[in-house]
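Changelog excerpt: complex records now keep ligands as SMILES alongside chain sequences, and the structure block spans every component. Example after the change:
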Amino acid sequence: MQSPALPVPEAPSLVPPALRGILPLLIAIPTLALFHWSLTGSDFATYLLSVVGVNIILAVSLNIVNGMTGQFSIGHAGFMAVGAYIAGYTSLQLKEVALSFLPVSASDQVLFMLALLVGGVAAALCGFLVGLPSLRLRGDYLAIVTLGFGEIIRVFVQNTDAFGRALGLSGIPQYSSPGMVFFWVFLVVLAARRLAGSSHGRSLWAIREDEVAAEAMGVDTTGYKVRAFVFSSFFAGIAGGLFAHFVPIINPGSFTFVRSMEIVVMVVLGGLGSTTGAVVAAIFLTLLPEGMRSLFGALGTEGSLAQRVDQIRMPIYGLLLVVLMLSRPQGLFGTKELWDVLPRWLPRKRRGLA
Amino acid sequence: MSANAQPVTPVTLDTKAPPALLRADGVSIQFGGLKALTDFHLSIQQGDLLGLIGPNGAGKSTAFNVLTGVYQPSQGQVLVRDTKVNGRKPHQINLLGVARTFQNIRLFRALTALDNVKVACRAQTALHQSRLGLGAKLVNAGHNYADWWKALLLTPSFQREERRLTAQAEHLLEVMGLSHRRDEEARNLPYGEQRRLEIARALGSQPRVLLLDEPAAGMNTREKADLMVLIRKLRDDFKLGVLVIEHDMKLVMGICEQITVLDHGETIARGAPAEVRSDRKVIEAYLGDSYLESHGGAA
Ligand SMILES: Nc1ncnc2c1ncn2[C@@H]1O[C@H](COP(=O)(O)OP(=O)(O)O)[C@@H](O)[C@H]1O
Ligand SMILES: [Mg+2]
């Protein structure tokens, strides 16, 4: 009211403002389609790519809460489970349904998308219910509550007939493909980057930096934290839904506390607050066990060490985390992005969040 | 509200005057057994430049924290333009037009100078009502989520809004002489500039009342004098009511029209600088231990 009304400067961009919003999509969708059709690799490669993609979605979405907002959630696998079971269940129910006006494969993909969204929204709803009471309070309540939430979901599923109890849910149509997974990878990365550069993202960074000051400057810290958490839970649910549609069976064992910790390690390794860091760390930490498995296989210790990779993975993660905390506590990239840490001769963006 | 045991010493209350932008009515607060603030009265109008002084630990910062909703008073009430704001959260009070700085600088250290200011500018554009029914609350929540979608879709209106925020923040940096620091992280700024950036950020929230907690702390005499001139200019240009906490008595004497003196949480004097300076209680408070400590000289 007091400061003079300043003229709003024109956009300095070559791209018309109306187009800027959808431009990345216009580029990404043909690229992804090309990627999808050219991918004729083995089942294993397809599977591995899908797992990498799902982990990227999980890490990037968790980074919004743990990195950008500076809160500490350690129950991401719980939200993934909600998405996986709800989307899987939806697909099972819709198995016999076909949209008559579409070819069969297209109809399947539409139903798949629907199931994914149902799963994502269910996870987001859980995020709201978990987040609202715990994010009002300062401190470590969120960690405790999310930890509890993950376990509650697991126990709930284990005791619910509709979700197959401990045996799990099988026979979910295998609609997923690396193309679809990476479409969502693209969406979550785009969303995270746009959020980070927007006024909402700035408010989240402000909360991370100093919650008291953010409140004093008019930032509704509880509201922002809850929204970030809901947002993050939505994508965890999507990741779960994707996962449910390319593995033969989902059971409570896929969504344990260890799974949550894996995602936390990815975010910390990448650098709390760095979206591209989360991507790089997710790729690295997904391929690492596979690499070890092949390495031990090649060394001829088949059946012993190679199979034990899964058992020794967590100790190695733990060790990695300790080494990281000692040598580079801010993670690989800190709060910077890949393009900020590239060699100097490459063109860079101007410093700042946007 | 709760019956006040102590006699209320009214602040100059002219019933015909417009409601005070910010008012404290008999506010008290305790921490455990410690009475940090007792029966505190204050009234700020537009154009006021008031001083709040007192030795270390007198309760000045506590008064700010009560006025801005960081602490809830155990007695008395805080009013913004005759609206009682007890129980409101700090961000709600800020949105009603009360902005502050902190004694120990609390910038968003990893954010650039520009982004620091933009955070405050942004908050003001959020749809906000303080006392809402459930229906309105839902609408408000829906609006907030829709706002996120605009950011994610990068709609033209969102882009225009971002440019507006940038322009506004740049203007405030210029006012505070910080344009050259636009893209620098706040933590890398020299101390004096950090203090000014905090003021720029507070102005970003478009306040009617500005509360400054020891804005000149750590500055040399010359810088302090410049700052005081700047504060007066801000009051005039932005049509503010300003309340300045200052530990150093001499400094506020120069520019404040009315000074309130706190000691051990009690208001021991209030009035024009000349009156306050010669007040016996004030001299005693300042010549007490803390005076000797901070000035290092023998009385
Ligand atoms: N959150 C708190 N908890 C306990 N004691 C506090 C708190 N905040 C302030 N105090 C005490 O209240 C008294 C007044 O502090 P303060 O308002 O910071 O003084 P100053 O006038 O120097 O700004 C001090 O004795 C301080 O220790
Ligand atoms: Mg103080």
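The two ends of chain B are 44 Å apart (CA to CA). Confidence is low (pLDDT under 50) at residues 1-10, 126-130 of chain B.
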